[in-house]
Amino acid sequence: MTRIYHNPRCGTSRTVLQALQEHGENPEIIEYLKTPPSRDELLRLIADAGLSVRQAVRSKEALYQELKLDDPAVDDERLVAAMLEHPVLINRPFVVTGRGTRLCRPADVLQDIL
Description:
alpha+beta, 4-stranded mixed beta sheet, 14% strand, Arsenate_reductase, oxidoreductase, arsenical resistance
């Protein structure tokens, strides 16, 4: 089952969803701002995508600066806690297919798992 952790307000997320549908996929759409992942699910997405926790944080959000998450001394535990408390800090879109998990930013990364 293909899944996309989607934010409908994000252009990249919309582009990836459209590409999935054009490829004949009918993905489970998880609007993660409404239904955030659990801690275990978030950590699994990050690990399966081959990312560090810091790479999975959306650093362009104003909240990232406000919470001072840009400080290199902030550890993974604090970053994960911030993403769980404020899902807008989770970078997007994560896509899970039978061929793997990717953070599809840029959108063409999707091709790796189709």
